[in-house]
Amino acid sequence: MKAWLLKDFGLDNLQLGETATPQPKAGELLVKVGAVSLNFRDKAIVDGIYEPHTVPKPLIPVSDAAGTVVAVGEGVTRFEVGDRVNSHLYSRWLDGEPGPNEPDYCFGSPLPGGLAEYMIIHEDSAVGAPANMSDEEAATLPIAALTAWYSLVDFGQIQAGQTVLVQGTGGVSIFAVQIATALGAKVIATSSSDENLHAVKRLGAVAGINYRTTPNWADEVLKLTEGKGVDLLLDVAGGSGINQSVAATKASGRIAQIGFLTGQTVELNLMPLIFRQTTIRGIA
């Protein structure tokens, strides 16, 4: 089969080639990939900045895919040939709290991902693709939509009338704006692009802040919230901006730390965090 193979770190080392078509073992599905969606994780893996010591080479990257079952292994009961399915990043995390070894079973590294004609998914890891969505649409759900939902609902426990700040306008952020709005929350969005801010306002955000033209964006958030700050903040940037995230979140508020677009390390000012009794949780 044709597949994109990462032979070493760096985009120039991601090459289209031929590899053996996998055969489904007991409990597994062979899925003909219809579409994939790209997440920052995929780029970070290719760039060698995402747990590089765990990345096998050559690697078929990209975790999120949708496609059609074309063969099944022995004992499969949940799906049959012709069913449309989604992959799921954490192939063994099915419910409850994550186990310590969940990252060892992630698609797109260390397990082969979906940037190929076919991929293997265990039937317990597969999720039926929504019938009203194309493969292209369904492929955006696993990381982006679930991360947004988990941040807002499981961790954030967001309620109607509360205020959420969503950083950026990538996949997770776009889903978060729509989900939070549907739940009755008020959404403030940040972006470096006025055009993107206009777009997320059309999706439901009540206010937008351009952090390039307003570098002290936390002050603007406080103005928009009568000095209180937001109930929940979805931080996709990481880096030193986490201190502004703390400042923009209300006392006893919550920060869902989702990404590290601007850096994986940070000098965190502990006193505001302590006095404001802010909860920060990593979301993976």
From TrEMBL:
Residues 10-283 form the Enoyl reductase (ER) domain. SUPFAM superfamilies: GroES-like (SSF50129), NAD(P)-binding Rossmann-fold domains (SSF51735). InterPro entries: ADH-like_C, ADH-like_N, ER, GroES-like_sf, NAD(P)-bd_dom_sf, Zinc_ADH-like. SMART domains: PKS_ER. GO terms for molecular function: oxidoreductase activity. This is NAD(P)-dependent alcohol dehydrogenase. It comes from Pseudomonas kitaguniensis.
